[in-house]
Amino acid sequence: MMKTLKMNNGLEIPLLGFGTFKAADGQEAYQATLSALKAGYRHIDTAAIYKNEESVGRAIKDSGIAREELFITTKLWNDSHSYEGAKAALKASLERLGLTYIDLYLIHWPNPKAIRDSWESANAQAWAYMEDAVEAGLIKTIGVSNFMVHHLEALAKTAKIKPAVNQIRLAPGCYQADVIAYCKAKNIILEAWSPLGQGEIFTNETMLSLAEKYGKTVAQIALAWSVYEGFLPLPKSVHENRIKENRDFFDIELSQEDAEMIKTLPDMAGIPDPDTKDF
To answer: How far apart are the C-alpha atoms of 179 and 166, rounded to whole Å?
Structure first.
């Protein structure tokens, strides 16, 4: 049975998710998602921009797992930050996934290039539709992704429903202290995308020595640290053996000293700035 966290709306979210970013639509995304579901994952994370919702949906259907046992996340892309835009985008995502509701729907980026002068009002409009979609039963929970503190504060001015989740880049060597503190204070769960970094942790001496100390892989140490910090990691892989490996870390009990050592690693890959992204 997968461990869960309780969100600020009272609903439960599985403590480990399976990320599908860069899993190509078709056989790759289908097989990876099916492998994850067979390996015991019950939380699948996709997005409109990943262009693989149809394959993910097919895997969900073919898994034979009851819908109520699954937790499915998808995301609103940058071209749909308006009330009607969000309405059309959600409808399209539901159709591609073959689902009647989404467990968690996120605004993917807070400040897309196309709305750089009006991101605050655009987000408020999209959020207003998402709130209505919760009321209509099309979405269970709503949240955001890549939001910094000022984006969250802006949204709070008009939001009737508080975001339950903020999915941001978090990994050893990528600790976004300001937004972490803010979200924890506001009872917003932090999901970690790319919790294994961009490959740089696998040659890091500290991570290698900790893997040896605990008799685990570097990836498992990174995921154990994520959970230790109170984050919800979303590891991604298209390889069945890695998918299973990334699930088997819950028996690791990091010492406070070791967790602190990971937390204070130098930034190895750069933290994305949503206000200057070129999309």
So the answer is: 9
Report the chain's mean pLDDT, rounded to a whole number. 97
- Which domains does the chain carry? 12-200+231-248 (3.20.20.100)
Catalytic residue status for 182: no
Q: Which residues are annotated as a binding site for substrate?
A: 108
As a whole number of angstroms, the distance between CA 166 and CA 52 comes to 22
pLDDT in tens, 182-225: 999 999 999 999 999 988 999 999 999 999 999 999 999 999 99
Catalytic residue among 30, 41, 50, 182: 50
pLDDT above 80 (res 29): yes
**Distance (Å, rounded) from C-alpha 143 to C-alpha 149?**
14
Chain centre to alpha carbon of residue 194: 9
Q: For the whole model, what pTM was predicted?
A: 0.97
- Distance CA(163)–CA(8), nearest Å, equals 8
- For residue 167, which of 111, 226, 70, 233 has the smallest C-alpha distance? 233
Helices (runs of H) and strands (runs of E) counted in the chain: 10, 10
Going by the annotation, the residues of the binding site are 108
